[in-house]
Write a structure and sequence with these properties.
By secondary structure, the chain is α/β, with parallel strands linked by helices. It contains 5 helices and 5 strands. Helix content is 35%, strand content 16%. The longest helix is centred in the last third of the chain and has 11 residues.
Length: 114
Amino acid sequence: MVTTITREDLRQKLKHPRKSIVLETLPPEEYCRVHIPGALNLPPDEVQALASELIPRKDLEVILYSAGPACDASEKVAAELTSIGYANVRHYAGGKSDWIEAGLPVSSEYRKAA
């Protein structure tokens, strides 16, 4: 089951990065341009190839976001992750646009999985 997460909840989760993983579900060029600090990139067409590398445990909290409410990329990735056994998937519906409009920090630093 996929549940939603608020901007404030996400801000708090980012303070404890070992307890959850944040994934932007947009193409790599969009991720590289700007993303939420600490987020990794999981484009919808790469879920099967990258999920086990980016999300090492199926019980880990996974927080997904995309461009904003009108973009369904994170919902597609959430459905695919749950179908392959990830049990704790959350969706930040406001997405990158909500984050930026709130004046919160962004990054353009490319991050690979640890």
